[in-house]
Amino acid sequence: MDRLHSVNAGDTQRRPWIVGVSGASGTPYAASVLRGLLAAGESVDLVVSRASRLTLLDETGIAFRDAHWRDDLGDWLARGADGKPGTFRVRTDDVRYWAAGDLAAGPSSGSYATKGMLIVPASTACVAGVALGLSKDLLQRSASVTLKERRPLVVCVRETPLNGQTLKHLVSLDEAGAIVLPASPAFYAGATHIQDLVDFVAGRVLDAAGVPHELYRRWEGELGGASGAGGSRPAEGGSGGA
């Protein structure tokens, strides 16, 4: 095969965003980010750590199973931040799932084409593992690959208070080129529901990745602009794709 002439300029290659979900509390943040990516027409490679399965089970009652991941993912993404089933309609056709223990998976290699990685939420253990380059599972390995390939890495850390060692790890990630984005919701957007606060954080993650969305009302320099806005929460069943 003539490799110099085997690729046409018009050919398209799937280049997903890797979404890593670690064991910190905050699975609604991950769900909102995933819905936002899919609504924007982005492809997603999903890695769910072993610890995050326990958190997901505790926060939503959903047991995330490798053999039935698409059904479980659909159930998870359909739920609102308040836990109500059927709040959103989401298509997961362009989601590829990789088991956390699969260190031979696509995202474990720099030659696997991706747009970058979003870790939502990021536990302090995950932060330490990525900062130290431990690569103990696929989530950490994918993050290390993302950094070495100079691709965008957004780390949405969800923990408080932060001890000195974690702060040092976060500085190390910043110096390595990652964007450290604490799960810190704002109130100027006129939040009236827990979903509004979750969507604000998810929207900031997507902002950092350069992915367009309409998850929250942006600041426009006008005091009191949120009054009467009624929040940014979408109508039931109206977000995340048809």
Architecture overview:
The protein has 242 residues and is α/β, with parallel strands linked by helices. It has seven helices and six strands; from the N terminus they run E-H-E-H-H-E-E-H-H-E-H-E-H. The protein has helices at residues 27-39, 50-60, 69-78, 124-132, 138-148, 164-175, 194-209, and strands at residues 17-21, 44-48, 95-99, 116-122, 153-157, 179-180. The chain has a six-stranded parallel β-sheet with strand order 3-2-1-4-5-6, with helices on both faces. Helix 6 links the parallel strand 5 and strand 6 (179-180). Helix 1 (27-39) packs across helix 7 (194-209) and helix 4 (124-132) crosses helix 6 (164-175). Keywords: Flavoprotein, FMN, Prenyltransferase, Transferase.
What are the main properties of this structure?
alpha/beta; 12% strand; 242 residues; 6 strands; 6-stranded parallel sheet; globular
Topology of helices and strands:
Elements: E1 17-21, H1 27-39, E2 44-48, H2 50-60, H3 69-78, E3 95-99, E4 116-122, H4 124-132, H5 138-148, E5 153-157, H6 164-175, E6 179-180, H7 194-209
Helix pairs in contact: 1-7, 4-5, 4-6
